Amino acid sequence: MTGGGGGVRKRSEASMLGISTSGMNRYDLLFGVVTSEALFRFGALDVSNGFEGDRRDKIIRTYIRNAYTYHLSEIFYTVVNEYTDWDRTVMHPINTRDAAIAALGKFQNNCECATFIVTLFLAASRQHK
């Protein structure tokens, strides 16, 4: 785009994304990004008390069975291995809950999608002055 005086003016991130910037500076702005996206899928009892490994296994198996077609056992064992704290000999139900939430959050939102969303938040926040 050319501006007055014949110089080149760079388009703002907001205009490229189609975000209107009129009136943006009237209010304070706060964006929030969480790491446990799957927490809302659990009931109040599970959130407050946690759950044991058997329940975690059932939840993860069900999700994998619904989301994938092949290599279900391999995927399940890989997830459980990755999200088990091997330094603890006995897992507290709250820690088991947290590990299951982390695993489901990774499955439900791939990293590219989450990065894109955070990038949009940052672009909008830069325009909010």
Topology:
Layout: H1 13-17, H2 44-49, H3 53-67, H4 72-82, H5 93-108, H6 111-127
Helix pairs in contact: 3-4, 3-5
Polypeptide structure, described:
- With 129 residues, this protein is mostly helical.
- It has a domain at 38-127.
- The protein is 54% helix and 0% strand.
- The protein has 6 helices and no strands.
- It has helices at residues 13-17, 44-49, 53-67, 72-82, 93-108, 111-127.
- The protein is elongated and about 50 Å long.
- The relative contact order is 0.19.
Characterize this entry briefly.
With 129 residues, this protein is mainly α.
Key traits:
mainly alpha, 129 residues
Q: Give the termini distance in whole angstroms.
A: 23 Å
In percent terms, what proportion of residues is strand? under 5%
The averaged pLDDT comes out at 74
Counting DSSP E segments of at least 2 residues, the number of strands comes to 0
Structural class, from secondary structure content?
mainly alpha
Low-confidence stretches: none
Order of helices and strands: HHHHHH
* Rg value: 22 Å
